[in-house]
Amino acid sequence: MLPGPTPGTPEGPSGARGFAVVDVEATGRSPWRHRVVEVAVVLLDERLCPEGEFATLLDPLGPVGPTHVHRIHQGDVEGAPRFREIAPLLLELLAGRVLVGHHVTCDQAFLDREFARIGVPLPPVPLLCTMELARVHLPEAPSHGLAACAEAAGLGWYPAHTALGDARVTADLLRHCLGAPSCPRDDWAGPLREAAGVPWPRLGRARSRPSGGGVPLLRREAPYGPWLPGSQAPEVVLTQAAAMGSTA
């Protein structure tokens, strides 16, 4: 469960849909040569209140890449959806929202390339980078990586390098930075209006696989912090969510 909005955070303009905080884990560093192997989206309204979240592992149709970084093993993605199968839902989640991430241009590049592979060009949307916000509104951070910023903001432990863990703490970091006294209250009213007016493509949802079963979702998750210093962090567990298309 995500905490509520920080007091003093800006109120969005009328008609705004809000923010989509995204994170991807990939099989490598290049959007052109590598694939997304996990994706998460945390939805916030224009007042930074949580509206929902989505996460799943993906079958990259090849090696999963640097397991020592993202801790995803080849066996973890067996039976996971392919990007094309979750693309329609992702489009629905992102439409009309400001795209947020920590070094958001990296996440955007991977998503843009994955959609391009299935012939769907993503529209240009307003971006909001918590790394850049932290440079201005979190001067006490010793560096600007996500872990250092989360610690400086007092956000506690989170399951780093899991897409959902990173997206959740990025959402909290967004609240922290936009609620800082140094951040103008209406700083993002313009981007919210702009994002709400961007036309988005649509795709028909994948109702089932050839076998007739719904498209499965595989989610990595751990209880969200903060945790007391010195306490043992909980393990990340892999769970299967309700299949897409099982009730459609």
Provide structural commentary.
Helix 4 runs parallel beside helix 6. A five-stranded mixed sheet has the order 3-2-1-4-5, with helices on both faces. The chain is built from seven helices and seven strands. With about 250 residues, it is of the alpha/beta class. The N terminus is likely disordered. The protein is globular and about 55 Å long.
Short summary of the structure?
This protein is an alpha/beta fold and 248 residues long. 28% of the residues lie in helices and 19% in strands. The protein contains 7 helices and 7 strands.
Summary tags:
248 residues, disordered N terminus, five-stranded mixed sheet, Nucleotidyltransferase, domain 5, alpha/beta, 28% helix
How are the SSEs placed, and which strands pair?
Elements lengths: L18 E8 L9 E9 L5 E8 L9 H4 L12 H12 L3 E4 L2 H14 L9 E3 H8 L8 H7 L10 H16 L10 H8 L18 E7 L15 E8 L4
Parallel strand pairs: 1-4, 4-5
Antiparallel strand pairs: 1-2, 2-3, 6-7
Helix pairs in contact: 4-6
Give the tally of β-strands. Answer: 7
What's the structural domain tally? Answer: 1
Name the average pLDDT. Answer: 86
Strand content: 15-25%
